[in-house]
Design brief:
With 404 residues, the chain is an alpha/beta fold. Helix content is 50%, strand content 10%. The radius of gyration is 21 Å and the shape is globular.
């Protein structure tokens, strides 16, 4: 018996170890060979915090994105979204959101200048590949929520000139552009407003990507009918799997594919898997969400910071309740089987709620590649998911604008 065990130790275990190592190395090689992009994170909010340094390695879940961990995770490009929450549409609130958006855009330029050896602001589809050759991360800028535009069409071009390359048309509430998928008051415009039609056409003219994440189903179909360019969902998942109204139905995904667009699958727990409402994490976050929805607009700055602190505390304490990478790839499978591999990508929503049990931050992105390889995705398919599909849409949008 001892001799048999010795033979296993001497001959078989090294083979198993080497085989496992080869598979791991192959996954990393496939991941590194892809031009990778994550189309949505909310890190600019953290950039306004003087205690956060995006040029140094931080720890999840407090912060999930920084330049060192982007390099560790083989992430070549990322959209930093200047997020502004939806508030009552008064002149004062619109102006406040407008100033905040510019402040976050300024902060992105500032940190890219400070760490210019690590990252650079990118504005065209080809910039990602060029910067990757220089060993730098390409940082694109998005505007999450068209609220700061108000009803001033000139602000669309102004944001474009500042480097913004997509606008998420709305967020959790209706605005002057369109209806939201989650406004408790229900639809206001019955989809895209008349002003929203102008916004979509202006974005087409400029070569700015139209982001349909967060918008209502009717708003989505209106955008598809109005836009001459393919559109993106920068951070959305599949509603047939996780039944959140923020996710896209199979019918919507079919229309998106017909439009030539792309759905970037989100890593936020409720968008990946229907929540287990019995967990402590869910109950505590539900309590905090209730406070946010009912009281946030009237809170002082100190009260808002305390609410954020409590949310982070829950986030850090109950990580085991999160969905997994396997759950995420179920969404990629769904899109692939429904319309083909050419219409799906990744948009994490890191630093805005995104994060999985086994993909807590950008450094763990290769785990998604490993899971796709496990499911027999080809290297070409993986390259498409990690960036090929999105950059195709980006280039088509630019080309269309150049013909105007």
């Amino acid at each position: 018996m001892l001799n048999f065990l010795f033979l296993i130790y001497l001959f078989i275990l090294p083979f198993v170890f080497e085989e496992g190592k080869e598979k791991a190395d192959f996954a990393l090689q496939v991941h590194e060979n892809a031009l990778t992009v994550d189309t949505h994170c909310d890190t600019p909010m953290a950039l306004l915090n003087e205690h956060f340094d995006v040029g140094k390695r931080n720890v999840a879940p407090r912060n999930r994105v920084d330049f060192p961990r982007m390099k560790e995770g083989g992430l070549d490009a990322m959209f930093f979204a200047a997020f502004v929450g939806q508030r009552e549409r008064t002149k004062e609130n619109i102006e406040t959101s407008y100033q905040l958006a510019h402040q976050m855009i300024d902060s992105v330029f500032a940190v890219c200048y400070q760490y210019q050896h690590l990252a650079e602001v990118a504005t065209s589809a080809n910039d990602a590949a060029s910067l990757e050759k220089e060993g730098k991360r390409a940082i694109y800028i998005g505007l999450e929520n068209g609220f700061p535009v108000g009803t001033n069409i000139n602000r669309v071009k102004e944001f474009y000139n500042r480097g913004v390359r997509y606008i998420t048309l709305c967020h959790s509430g209706n605005n002057d552009i369109c209806d939201s998928s989650t406004d408790k008051k229900g639809p206001e415009h019955n989809g895209l407003s008349e002003f929203g039609v102008q916004v979509v056409r202006e974005m087409n003219n400029l070569g700015m990507l139209i982001d349909v994440s967060h918008i209502s189903d009717k708003s989505f179909f209106d955008v598809i009918e109005t836009s001459k360019a393919p559109v993106i969902a920068s951070h959305s998942s599949v509603r047939e799997i996780a039944h959140h109204p923020r996710n896209m139905t199979g019918e919507m995904i079919k229309r998106l594919a017909e439009n030539g667009g792309v759905i970037q699958i989100c890593l936020l727990d409720d968008y990946v898997k229907d929540p287990d409402t019995t967990t402590i994490r869910y109950k505590k976050q539900a309590e905090l969400r209730k406070i946010y929805n009912e009281e946030y607009e009237t809170m002082s700055e100190a009260e808002r910071k305390e609410l954020s602190r409590k949310w982070r505390e829950v986030d850090e304490k109950y990580t085991n309740d999160l969905p997994t990478v396997a759950d995420l790839v179920d969404h990629i499978d769904y899109v692939k089987n429904l319309v083909g591999i050419d219409y799906v990508g990744i948009g994490s929503d890191f630093d805005g709620g995104g994060g999985l049990a086994d993909c807590a931050d950008v450094s763990e992105f290769p785990n998604i590649t490993r899971e796709m390889l496990k499911r027999n995705y080809t290297e070409e398919e993986i390259r498409k998911v990690w960036g090929g599909n999105f950059f195709r849409v980006f280039r088509e949008t630019e080309i269309l604008a150049s013909k105007n």
